[in-house]
Amino acid sequence: MFFSNEKVCVYGITGRYGSYHTKKMIEYGTNVVCGVSKNDEIKEVHNVPVYNTLSDYVSKGFNVDTAIFFVPAPYVMEAFLDAFNNGVKKFVVITEHVPIHDTLKMVDIVKKNNLTLVGPNCPGVIYPKEKVKLGIMPEKYFKEGEVAIISRSGTLMYEIAKYIGESYGVSIGIGLGGDPVIGLNVSEAFKEVAKLGFEKVVLIGEIGGEDEIIGVAEAIKMGFKPSNIVSFFAGRHAPEGKRMGHAGAIVEGEHGKIKYKEEKMREYGVRVVKFPWEVKSAFAL
Length: 285
Hints:
The protein is of the alpha/beta class.
């Protein structure tokens, strides 16, 4: 999925958040080779060259594997197309409030071209073994280990990583994002985990939709043992019809409720925990 030799471009690198997280990613070990910004006055950030477009960098004979986006929501689509048209294969969109019609266009492009899109409105991806961090997660909690985390929630991903880090450790953390429309879904995330050879997974879900249910059903078909999957769902007491934090976290009908999702997990033989700290010992039971 994402490896240590990935050549990464940061869109929005001169902004407050782009600059801050670029520094953290570089310190972790991520190979950031360039940045893109509309700011004509800044030519370098943390020793990373900055260009107006990725074309300016590629025209020098270089290439980029992955792009991560910190640009304002109205400009995400423009940045995405700049990256796509210059050969980028993997995209991580941190930005929230991206217009849904733009997300639909991006998802359509990546599906037709067999590319990877994580997000939007996501914490990103971290792979401790390869020292690759493409996102905003606090890396100190993601101690290398054997349990993959697939999460719709950012902050819960960090909290549960901390508990897992005290025992099993984290093999890879994938933050899918909380919007109604996203790129990589739960089923596809399980496929990525399988490709890397990891067997234990913590699935962090939320109210709304059925992506977790579909994803776990597909994972079992792929060969994942239900006993190696632990699920936790946020939003147990959320009022029906009201969006809770994420645009995609809204209960509309029985299938989006926590009770229904937990019942389906138990039917599949997947362990369900009600509190984040219970994940730490769940695999031992």
